[in-house]
# Entry
Amino acid sequence: MMHRSEVAVSVELQTPDMTINIGPQHPSTHGVLRLIANLDGERIRDVEPVIGYMHRGYEKLSEVRTYAQITALVNRIDWVSGFANEVPFILGVEKLLGIEVPERAQWIRLILSELARISSHLVFMSSYPLELGATTPLMHTLREREYVLELIESVTGGRFHPNFTRVGGVKPNYGGGSQTKKQSMDLPAGFFKQTLETMDRVDQICDDLDTLVTGNEVIMMRTQGVGVIPADKALEYGLTGPNLRASGVDYDLRRDDPYLTYDQIDFNVVTRDTGDCYARYVVRQDEIRESANIIRQAIDMIPAGPLMAKVPRVLKAPPGQVYTRAENPKGEFGYYLVSEGGKMPYRLKIRSTSFSNLTILPWILPGQLVPDLVAILGSLDFVLGDVDR
# Structure
């Protein structure tokens, strides 16, 4: 008689598909996102993203606000890089009005845009390892980000929502004198010196992250070969910014459709060709170094001069339409502005970056393991305020 352990038993275990909700307030998402995922065991069959939980109606709100007032709204779309949201909108209004912006104001806009890029990427560099189980980089990186935010605050008065650009230039700082005789001031004293010192700190934190994160065996195992987006699919789904460049597409609006004074700056467009989670991380880390390089060049090249062009006290745009865009830290950020004359736009359509980048989820997530879902989501670096504008 055979012992039970010697009897070969072949039983195929079948498990029914299971539908789970990830969100709408899951800690791994950057805001309020809901994913309806159908699972076959630990494997994802398909995913349906459900958005709109944070919808704030900025496009409709803009129809009942003057052009000057709208800058306070657009700051809050992608709240991690507020200043970068202002620039393309103001450029659109200035194009409608035919206003020539003083060169110094354009350089200041450029410097602050790159500071916003560094700030946004540092949030990603600190939070993404945390989602993969590495806790040390969080405070280590956010500490250096505070120095960047202090620079932005010293110029604009705000850390998250600067509301600093103005139609025709940037907001003048006032100091001294009475209310009837204010003295116009420029950038804060010592701003350039502090900025250069902070850029050195930024370079150092990138070097530290090479040891803590990019060279970490666990991080590489969780990200390399995971969530691969080929270049053709990235283009097909409208991805832009670091997510597109990590798939090998050499495209950056600062170089390919220059605005402000980027055409006078020498910088590299960072790309990778693997298109996985690891590539998306490394591209953003290298972009921080490039932004620091851009800021150093801008400080050397910025001229003296006025901060504001002569603009009418009451801004009334002539009838017309314009689309302007800029390289937001997360990708192409654009505004389609329609004017029928008057102080307010007839229509404002926002081309937000995170919304377009998230469209890849139903394609990339099927077939992935559930633990890899968090790694893929985090690597796309989205903000739900940007999605649900």
Notes: Residues 60 and 159 are 26 Å apart (CA to CA). Residues 56-387 form a domain with the Cytochrome-c3 Hydrogenase; chain B fold (CATH 1.10.645.10). The chain is about 45% helix and 15% strand.
